[in-house]
Structures are given as structure tokens and as C-alpha cells.
Amino acid sequence: MQRGLDPSTLVDQLTFRSAMSLLPTGVTVVTVGRRESLEAVTVNSLTSLSLEPLLIVVGLRLGGRVATRLERADAFAVHVLAADQRHLAVLFARRDRPSGRTADLTLRTAETPRGNVLIGGALVSLECQPFATHPGGDHLLVVGRVVAIHGVGAESTAPLVFHRGDYERGCGTLSGSIAGTNDDPISLGSVRAGEDGR
């Protein structure tokens, strides 16, 4: 043990996961490819990064199927799930989740000109071009440049939320005077350590 460290402040992986589970996050499915080549995984590590250019970051398990594909792909999509899509989150979080044609038939309701699938009922789908990748411990941080947004406007639909190790129905939009005035609605987002995207 290093000198001067308080043993009560040292943490292990289980303690860290428990601590991070206290922060509610949205739930997404990241897809790359289409039809027979489709790979998809549930991810709750998503954040917006930049407005100029439009960038997002997702965290994927290093060496996982989706991370490996994204390192050589020219397009991918991130789909923010609605509360009634818990079954998709559970299915695509599994190690034995479907891929290829089975995943395509499970997820796709449309296909974009860029070759991305669109998940019907998702709150929003972001089509991205890979912009950069950065290793982050046992995860790969994938920065995507957003080139198209589908489905914005379903404000009455509750999001799916991951909290304390389980899926919950989100409560909708929070507005008020956290910053600025009561006339300025504020949408609060969150970031958490990466989901086990394999």
C-alpha cells in the first residue's frame, strides 16, 4: 500500500460498480452493419461531446464484437430506447445476443441510405461516422460525428432508464431554475461508466 493513503478510500471493482449504479442513465442500442453483417449491443455509456462539429461518445467493451467492428466501419448508429423497449435492452446486453439476419429481423423497421438500421419506437436514432477512438481501461471510447438524426419529437414518450442495476421507466423532462431563469427549461443528461458492450 502506498504511504499516506487512507485504506477506507480504496475501492475495488464491485464498490465502484455499486457507486456508479446510483447515477441513472439512459439506455441505447448501438448498431453497426446491416442484414447479415449487423451487430448490436446495449450501451448506457453515451454523452454528447461537441456542437461544432456534432460529436457523441460511446463506451464499448474493448475487444468486443461491436467495438471490433466499429474500429473498421464507416458508419454506425445509436438508438435511445423508450421505456417499453426493455426487452431489446435485455436481449442485446447478453453475451449470446443475436447478430446478422436474426438481429436485423428483431430490430430493423427501416434502413437509411447510409446503410444503418433504424429501430422502430426508439426515442431518437443518431447516425454517425467514426471520428476517433481512444482506449479507456477495459473499454474503447468511440467518438462519432453525427450526420443524421431520426425520430426527434416524441416528447410524451418516457425513456428507458438504467438505475441501481435494473431498468426503469424514466419520468420525462425536468425543467426549472437550476441555472438561468424559470423561462429556461433545462434537460438534465447523465454519464456513467460503460455498459458491458461485448
From the structure above, extract its key features.
7-stranded antiparallel beta sheet, globular, 3-stranded antiparallel beta sheet, about 200 residues, disordered C terminus, mainly beta, Pnp Oxidase, Chain A
Model description:
The chain is mainly β and 198 residues long. The protein has a single domain (15-169), classed as Pnp Oxidase, Chain A (Roll). Helices cover 14% and strands 36% of the residues. It contains four helices and twelve strands. The protein has a seven-stranded antiparallel sheet. A three-stranded antiparallel sheet has the order 1-11-12, with no helix packed on it. It has a two-stranded antiparallel sheet with strand order 7-8. Strand 4 (46-51) and strand 5 form a beta hairpin. The chain is globular. The two termini are 33 Å apart.
End-to-end CA span: 33 Å
CATH class: Mainly Beta
CATH topology: Pnp Oxidase, Chain A
Radius of gyration: 18 Å
What's the CATH architecture?
Answer: Roll
Question: If you average the pLDDT, what whole number results?
Answer: 81
Q: Tell me the strand order in the biggest sheet.
A: 3-2-6-9-10-5-4
Determine the fraction of residues in helical runs and give it as a percent range. Answer: 10-25%
Tell me about the biggest sheet?
Answer: 7 strands, antiparallel
**Bulk shape:** globular
Question: How many domains, in number, for the residues?
Answer: 1
**What portion of residues belong to β-strands?**
35-45%
How many strand units? 12
User: What structural class should be given to the helix and strand makeup?
Assistant: mainly beta
Query: Helix-strand pattern, N to C?
Result: HEEEEEHEHHEEEEEE
**Low-confidence segments:** 173-198
